[in-house]
Amino acid sequence: MAEPQTLDNNVNRREESQSDDKNYLTVTLPGPGGSSAADAILELYEDVTKHPRLAKITKHLTSDTKEAAPGIRETHVILSVGSGHQKAAVFYDECVGPLLAALYANDYQKFHVHTTTSATSVLELANGTLFTKANAGTALRIIVLSGDGGIIDLVNGLSSHATSASYIAPQVVLIPLGTANALYHSINPAEQNTWGLAALASSQSSPLPIFTASFSPGARLLVDEARSEEELATDPSSGRPILHGAVVCSWGMHASLVADSDTAEYRKFGVERFKMAAKEALYPADGSAPHAYKAKVSVLKGDEWTSLKEEEHMYVLATMVSNLEQPFCISPHSRPLDGTMHLVHFGPTSGDEAMRLMGLAYQGGKHIDDPAIRYEAIDGLRIKFQGKEEQGQWRRICVDGKIVRVETDGWVELRKDARRVLDVVTV
Ligand SMILES: Nc1ncnc2c1ncn2[C@@H]1O[C@H](COP(=O)(O)OP(=O)(O)OP(=O)(O)O)[C@@H](O)[C@H]1O
């Protein structure tokens, strides 16, 4: 039962108010059992990509539990300082940290805070300490300040060993400090971005649906702005290179623009970098038409693979989420964490037509009603190059922002993966 100061028990209330020309947003943080654990009043900036400032915290004590969740869970915080506008550490110090200190006055000092020092920090942490603990039956809660990359590194690190019967899927709290934050915006489709803070005290969670992409033997992960390449992890039973994902696997225009825009120079432009790279790819400097990507594409439904009749493509994308950026609704039939996979496909076309189709996705997913688009639920996707693309740049596959290049006669095969590796905290 709530103490007097917690009479306002309006769970998930989000309110915007204005005073002194400043915009404020109240985010209510539901605690265990759905009761309100605290209110955070955020001061918003006009630039919505800029993280808000924490103006005030009001903690609501309940008589049965003075501490909010996670209670018995061992809590880790990951600050991915290379993500997005590189504000993870600042946002933690100014907003998330003070909120956690208020919510978990007794336990906060015991939280393990990890700050990334390299592009592989999260993978190594997940692969080592976090996997060892989860596999030994320690219930973990991981608060991640990053973009999609941090979550995918966790998924890949935690899936890189066989699990014991004692494995407990860690709970992960998503704090969207990346560029696109597709997973966060697909799970939290509200118009008003509450920066994941509402989940900080919640004890509700759902398994994160994932997929596994297997590649032909010579496939390589491109790193360091494609200046170097690395071998991928291999599947212990088949020996094939693999990568797990939870957001998207694409080839063609989408993969190319993600790959081309993943440079320090482009990253300065935030989410605009994807549109900038799209324009470059769609309007080649020599005035020619955009590239027609050549490969054999097949889709899996149930146990049956069916080949698409088209031999040339522009956009081939399988996704397990609805939004690849907050306003970019690529798969309007996907529901948060529902485990479905959808294909979005269109064939070679002009730059203008490709821009028109993508523009419709920015209008709430209207592209799926256009006759040029193939949109359907699938269970897997296979792309076989069969020597049809000589240049490596046309054989780049995107898995949740990571780029893998396969060989001239190589292939990628993607399937939903039923494993429960991580649970996502929801409100
Ligand atoms: N300290 C660091 N030094 C070098 N690289 C880092 C460091 N911290 C994070 N990174 C790298 O920065 C990239 C950030 O990826 P992440 O997906 O989190 O953010 P993003 O790409 O901006 O967002 P999104 O994927 O949502 O568009 C990852 O490749 C990660 O490995």
From TrEMBL:
Descriptive protein name: Uncharacterized protein
